[in-house]
Amino acid sequence: MQPKKHLSFSNLRKTISERALHIEDPRREGSVAHSIHDCCLSGFAMMFFQDPSILAFQRRLQDDGHKNNLQTIFGVGSIPKATQLRDVIDMIPSSSFDPIFSDFFSFLQRANQLKKFQFFKKQYLISIDGTQYFTSENLSCSGCLEKTSRKTGKTTYSHQFLGASIVHPDQRQVISLAQEPIQNTDGSTKQDYERNAGKRLIQKIRKTHPKLRD
């Protein structure tokens, strides 16, 4: 296989599709309207088209051409509505997507694309940064982080995660390496925070890439 084929859109899409097919579905079979595969690939398509929200993505699909693209290019058999898409993706553990990072990293290795990211003595720079992707004063779950304002006494619930990427000062692109949620777990009496998540993330990278010099 030529390097270009390793990194082609069709190969990357196929990889995501194959991984999505192996995600366990906890729903009862008779109550499933849209498969986890179709919801995951719909979410991927939304990010690919850079839609600002699920609603904007759904509006895009009102055009027959875009709907056809979703089915033919992304391999989505049954297109979920906004609420259905959100509900299904929310129930999937983030760890289910970890293998995709390793898959893409392997493609870059085979295509000889990692050498230009070597920084010092053939080592790599790994940047770790956190982001918040959900916040609310009304909605919460057992995994939410909680922050209570001293001034107002109101509690804010949020979801956050850490992302690790290989970076190089001379390269505009970055290589996403792994992610780790910052979230409370069942039975825990202490709130999770970035330092703990960072330790887990580093352990994950070392386990997944034991030969990577960082």
Short key terms for the protein model shown above:
alpha+beta, 5 strands, 39% helix, globular, 2 domains, five-stranded antiparallel β-sheet, 214 residues
Radius of gyration: 19 Å
Q: Can you tell me the residue ranges where pLDDT is under 50 for at least 5 consecutive residues? A: none
Alpha-carbon distance between the two ends = 28 Å
Helix amount? 25-40%
Principal-axes geometry comes out as: globular
Structural class: alpha+beta
Beta-strand proportion? 15-25%
Report the major sheet.
5 strands, antiparallel
SSE run: HHHHHHHEEEEEH
Number of helices: 8
Q: How many structural domains are formed by the residues? A: 2
Whole-number average pLDDT? 89
Assembly state (oligomeric) = single chain
Q: What's the total number of strands?
A: 5
Compact summary:
The protein has 214 residues and is an alpha+beta fold. The protein has helices at 3-6, 9-21, 36-48, 54-60, 64-72, 82-91, 98-110, 194-208; strands at residues 118-120, 123-136, 145-148, 155-167, 175-182. Helix content is 39%, strand content 20%.
Structure description:
With 214 residues, the protein is of the alpha+beta class. It folds into two domains: 3-94, no CATH class; 114-208, no CATH class. The chain has eight helices and five strands; from the N terminus they run H-H-H-H-H-H-H-E-E-E-E-E-H. It has helices spanning 3-6, 9-21, 36-48, 54-60, 64-72, 82-91, 98-110, 194-208; strands spanning 118-120, 123-136, 145-148, 155-167, 175-182. Strands 1, 2, 3, 4 and 5 form a five-stranded antiparallel sheet that branches. Strand 3 (145-148) and strand 4 form a beta hairpin. Helix 2 (9-21) runs antiparallel to helix 3 (36-48) and helix 2 runs antiparallel to helix 7 (98-110). The longest helix has 15 residues, at 194-208. The mean pLDDT is 89.
